[in-house]
Specification:
Strand content: over 45%
Helix content: under 10%
Radius of gyration: 17 Å
Oligomer: single chain
Number of helices: 0
Number of strands: 24
Distance between the termini: 39 Å
Strand order of the largest sheet: 1-24-23-22
Low-confidence stretches: none
Shape: globular
Length: 291
């Protein structure tokens, strides 16, 4: 049964990240990009607090040295620490140059500690400007653009064996799959999934320990699990239409946490809330970025 873990009104909830070392039983971090807020949901107490930010934050990824996070703000990559007093930016990384009107969007870390992240036009997700978004890889201090031509680059996820990178263009309604070599090279780009009609648009995604790919449906009000061959295996219906991302958390990584957006959905009582469900499969630990 799907539960509402936090009844809030995030304008654009995104970037859920499970942090097992935080709090007595772990905490889930997620952002409200349009609301310029970083939220922390505590598993043990069930409470959620938030801090306003000077610039929109699109995602966070843990650092392998334990010193906070690398975070993707709208226009730059930063080193961010988070304590009881809130987030603090303590450094910056080299940042790729993007066209005016673009921002960064969604990220994941692969099994070898490389960071994969995308960019997008700031237009609505379903009408992103073709060709403006790109996919990047940050491998230590080496930053490179690895693919381009996206309307809205979204939802990177890596298979349990580290050999497949999934990445979507939300505006086009397509989830792509790439072969991911041990050295970080991508090859064999192919259309893995195509969303149509009431399915909405593919947004954030995550893999479970069995290789299933869970994809949030922006405008489709659901999260779906797909088998490695692209077969639809399971669908979870949400009481919010703009479903943005998902990740596994909780003890044993048995809970699937799901973020949503309230922007443009005033008529939906639970739009922008955080949800969780126990889907019967376990997730994967979030790899840390090796700076």
């Amino acid at each position: 049964m799907i539960q509402c873990a936090w009844r809030g009104r995030a304008r654009l909830g995104e970037g859920p990240l499970w942090c097992p070392e935080r709090g007595p039983a772990g905490q889930l971090l997620f952002v409200d990009i349009l609301g310029r807020t970083l939220h922390v949901h505590d598993y043990a107490s069930g409470g959620t607090c938030g801090w306003e930010l000077d610039e929109p934050c699109c995602w966070l990824a843990p650092r392998a040295d334990g010193d906070g996070f690398i975070a993707g703000l709208a226009s730059r990559l930063v080193h961010l620490r988070l304590d009881e007093n809130g987030p603090r930016i303590v450094g910056e990384w080299a940042t790729p140059e993007e066209p005016v009107g673009n921002r960064f969007n969604d990220a994941t870390v692969d099994t070898r500690g490389r960071l994969w992240f995308g960019s997008m036009s700031e237009n609505e997700k379903e009408s992103g400007e073709p060709g403006r978004g790109a996919l990047y890889c940050l491998d230590g201090a080496n930053l490179r653009r690895v693919d381009s031509g996206y309307g809205v680059a979204n939802g990177p996820a890596v298979s349990p064996d580290g050999g497949t990178l999934y990445h979507s263009d939300t505006a086009a309604g397509i989830v792509y799959a790439f072969d991911l070599a041990t050295g970080g090279e991508l090859s064999g780009k192919r259309e893995h999934l195509r969303f149509r009609g009431t399915q909405g648009y593919p947004d954030g995604m995550t893999c479970d320990a069995e290789g299933g790919l869970w994809v949030a449906h922006w405008g489709g009000g659901r999260v779906s699990r797909f088998l490695p061959d692209g077969t639809l295996d399971e669908t979870l219906i949400l009481p919010a239409s703009r479903v943005t991302s998902c990740t596994f958390g909780g003890p044993g990584l048995e809970q699937l946490y799901i973020t949503t957006a309230a922007d443009g959905r005033d008529q939906e009582a639970l739009a922008g809330s955080l949800f969780r469900v126990k889907p019967g499969v376990r997730g994967l630990n979030s790899p840390a970025f090796k700076a």
